[in-house]
Amino acid sequence: YTPGHNLAGTATASASFSGAPQTVPAALNNGVQPEATGWSNRYVKAQTALLPAYSLARPTDWVSLTWAAPQPVGSLVAYFRLDTGRALPAAVSVEYWDGRRFVPATDQSVNMATGSEEPTTVTFAAVSTTAVRLVVTSPAPGTSNGFVQISELQAIGDEPAGAG
Question: Is residue 62 within 8 Å of residue 133, measured between CB atoms?
């Protein structure tokens, strides 16, 4: 095994919600960092004849990485991009697929970034799983300033010999 390897490149990325066509989950693990687009839950609902335009942050969202075979993962590293309406999340946590459902990873420790494009690292008791997800909590739900954007998401674990 090669310890401390980024396993995200071979995963399929997904999200609970994407705000715009140019900020889709596929950008989460494409290896481009920093990236102006990346994944984001920021959206703008256009004005209609009866309603004004609006853009309100959701309370929580998640982004995930899924593999065809189990991977030994012990930390996730997210690079949050700060921009208009986008801020660092109020909280982050990790869940993993136990074969039946997503459950919280144990022994989580968060080292939150303080600026744009800096690593936020969540370490946890290593698991062997086919999917992990990072749950992000908006710092200002229901406002236009509580959205989250991730330019890159890494899953750090042990890569089997010959897999790279």
Answer: yes
